[in-house]
Amino acid sequence: MDDRGAYLPSQQQIAAACATIQGTWSDDERRRRACGLMPGARSARGVTLPPAWQPPVIAVTPEVAAALEAM
Predict the structure, then answer these.
(1) Do the Cβ atoms of 35 and 43 come closer than 8 Å?
(2) CA-based radius of gyration for the chain
């Protein structure tokens, strides 16, 4: 694969970008992120956060499930 033109930031650049983004957060947003309030949960203000993306669930027969567990 040719990586020419790919943006590959350094750790320092990533940390600086994160600090810039976090600088725009409200106190509520900081608290939410620090406490790990999950989407769908109610915040202290009684606001329900929107549901987040969830991975797909694949239904399998009991035989397939048993074979997968045995692996």
Answers:
(1) no
(2) 21
DSSP state of 4: T
Which residue from 35, 57, 14, 15 is spatially nearest to 43, judged by alpha carbons? 35
This prediction's pTM: 0.42
In the chain, the number of structural domains is: 1
| Per-residue confidence in pLDDT tens, the chain, 71 aa | 566 778 889 999 999 999 999 999 998 888 777 766 555 666 666 666 666 656 677 888 999 989 988 98
* Structural domain boundaries, residue 35: 11-70
| Residue 37, Cβ density class (10 Å: 0-12 exposed, 13-18 middle, ≥19 buried) | middle
Measured distance CA(28)–CA(69) in Å, rounded = 42
Q: What tokens were used for 61?
A: 């027969």
